[in-house]
């Protein structure tokens, strides 16, 4: 039996935390979630209070949602955990911009670590030394995970098995592929994403004089909204990355393909990645769990190739990928015989053709969620139930509220109504 200590502070001070940890030498999992009051003073596990505290058996450390987590506290916790295998910094405020690092480390990192800020440089230094095969969760670290920081992870953590960077909106196709970015050299300063008004990512490739674009007036003011500029930027970046793929260029020489040991990848709500980046680098024979939910630029071209490139997929989440159609989903399931868990809720372009493809190729499927797929019919949903005997939990295209019974002249026409049984499984049933 594994020993686990979960501390949810909820902004209330936890007294004698170091004394508690002193009696947990066999602890394997430690979750300090939302402990702002605990970390605010910065004195937890300081030199005096940490005497006699060791965590030699600790495998998993969860520090999610801590606003006052600093470099000093992180270093103390990691120093006590020599066998750490999983680190979660989900929702922590990690400083990535070089200006932040220079402010708190004017001597370039020499001297004591800062107790005022958590920097990506500090996280990266640990990953370089000890994180070769670590499970890493940096989800919701909104300003920390950029193209440059993702490139650093791919460069220094080639044994990584689990990578979760959901809700990191600064990650683009360039970060996934390394195309359009300058090479990373050892000791080089990491720089944040630039603002791309014309779609270029990173360093611009030199263009022939005949193709050179007119020089922009440095005093010109764009009247486009920020959202419009991002749309133009993403469209231009996709063209640039695709052109470099066609020319077999290497870009930075580092990409997601370097993480050859990945078994789980979460890119959900990374809204700026597209078919171009996903189809080029999501190619892992050992990948088991993949989440690309809420990626509006992901469509048929990227999804259809996932089955061929990742034949071992068992869990796939594509919820609210609004550009996905039957053709893309059919290409996925046709080459994913091990698929057990599939989430398609909110994919509004899917029709009965998607259900027929699932019936034909997903004999092992145990969980399916197609709630919100309004173009699917109740008749085809009933056929799917009969064709997949292993399907234990699924949310139909349209589900009635709990306890409600469909009424009207022809209740069998109500989308999602199961004429064979009055029982309905909840849409939010847990997956695998």
Notes on the protein architecture:
It is a single chain. This protein is α/β, with parallel strands linked by helices. It has a domain at 1-130. The protein is built from 13 helices and 14 strands. It has helices at residues 17-22, 36-39, 71-79, 98-104, 120-130, 147-156, 173-177, 226-246, 275-281, 300-309, 326-333, 352-361, 378-387; strands at residues 4-8, 29-33, 60-62, 86-88, 94-95, 118-119, 135-137, 162-164, 264-266, 289-291, 315-317, 341-343, 367-369, 393-395. It has a twelve-stranded parallel sheet with strand order 1-2-3-4-7-8-9-10-11-12-13-14, with no helix packed on it. A two-stranded parallel ribbon has the order 5-6. Helix 10 (300-309) packs parallel to helix 11. The chain starts with a strand and ends in a 37-residue tail after the last strand. Mean pLDDT is 79; it is low at 194-214 and 400-432.
List keywords for this structure.
disordered C terminus; 432 residues; alpha/beta; globular; two-stranded parallel sheet; 13 helices; 14 strands
Number of helices: 13
Strand and helix order: EHEHEHEEHEHEHEHHEHEHEHEHEHE
Assign the structural class, choosing from mainly alpha, mainly beta, alpha/beta, alpha+beta, or little secondary structure.
alpha/beta
Instruction: Order the strands across the largest sheet as they lie in space.
Output: 1-2-3-4-7-8-9-10-11-12-13-14
**Into which percentage range does the β-strand content fall?**
5-15%
Distance between the termini: 21 Å
Helix content: 25-40%
Radius of gyration, Cα only, in angstroms? 24 Å
Provide the residue-averaged pLDDT.
79
| Poorly predicted spans | 194-214, 400-432
Count of β-strands: 14
Global geometry: globular
